[in-house]
Amino acid sequence: MTTTDLLPAPPPRAAARRALLAGSAGNFVEWYEFGVYGCFATVIAANFFTPQAGTGTGPGTGAGVQGGAEALVATYASFALAFFFRPVGAFLFGRVGDRFGRRPALVLVIGLMTLATTLIGLLPTRADIGAAAPWLLTFLRVLQGLSAGGEFGGAVSLMAEYAPPGRRGLYGAWQSFTVALGLLAGAATAAALATALSAEALYAWGWRIPFLLALPLGAVALWLRTALEEPPGGPPAGSGAGPGAATGTTDPARTTGVREQARAVVLGVGRIMGWSAAGYAFLVVLPSHLQSALGASFRDALLATTLVNLGFAAAILPAGVLSDRVGRRPVMLCGALGVAVLAVPLLHLLQAPGTPTQARVVAVLTAGALVGLLAGPGPAMLAEMFPRRVRCTGLGLSYALANAVFSGCAGLFITALAARTGNTAVPAHYAAAACALSVPALLTLRADDHREPLR
Length: 455
Known about the structure:
Elements: H1 3-6, H2 13-39, H3 41-48, H4 68-84, H5 86-100, H6 102-122, H7 126-129, H8 132-162, H9 168-196, H10 199-206, H11 208-212, H12 214-226, H13 252-283, H14 286-294, H15 298-326, H16 328-351, H17 357-375, H18 378-383, H19 391-406, H20 410-421, H21 426-442
């Protein structure tokens, strides 16, 4: 009997497509909400984090003692706090996914995210209930952070384990592609509302609409996931007795395995830190930075965000396919080195007064595409680092920790540093530095990792 005889048979294509759809749908809802929050950061700052906000009917209304930049920093502090709860969610829901099955974990996380997002759309503002408003918003952001932390590990494990041979890069890339679709949907919804509504209406009640839309979107994703089948070769759903389940005894081999997985988590963080930092600097923080630092209008900032997300989305699936052919390392290295070298020149081109419109469009599309080169192969790369019995937890923790440190703090760090120094190129320097630091970790990838079967 050969090693390949012990591996589970490739899953039927119909079941693989259903798993891809169920994983992608929930991931879309998760990232749609994060895109909406990023696009409406200045609106949320005015309604929740500005003392004496009055009616919240427009930019800077009732700013009082605290300026708009300080309120925006407070908004991103809430944003960062949610990210720091992601590792907790990754561990809790990852253990559910590894012990009881992928489906229960994925059902739980989408239900929690849908509930929290909908409640944000119903939340009273600071003008209505005073200082309790930002605390309630922060609590709901924490719930979203827990949910988002569990989403990645379960969804990527599901997609990778269902992927036909030689297509893990493509299947994993769908996770990142639905991130792009969710962010695009959030930006497009915000842009449509900014166009259709007056500034007064947008600040007063229009901002609630995108959050309330999460309810029907989440209901569809929940329905798809409840009908999901477990990937072949895993523990029976609900048994809690799969590989790696606790036996009540101390196993030296297990202790060694825990240390090895901890090292793998740290290495995984190093490999994707550039992806995390550049992704949030360009895809989420950009609209509010263009407004607060460069004086762009809300509509122009949203247009730039939509274009950078289009470039991101266009590169993801081709990058995943290419990584199945040539390996994860060369594709991800091209993305990391590209951001490290080009981020600052692209931002200078974008903000230069005499830059033609066509050149600005090319600049933002290029920035998004470089992040796509990292995001396309990234999920499959992480899935290949961990054995099945700890895959949900391991890759979820790697992704959540990287996002907590390098994404969750991006808005807070960039906004505060740009306001303090007056340097409008802070987002580009931040993304370039993180990508440069991730290059040594990416160089540790083996050339044939994409050809090996999942452990």
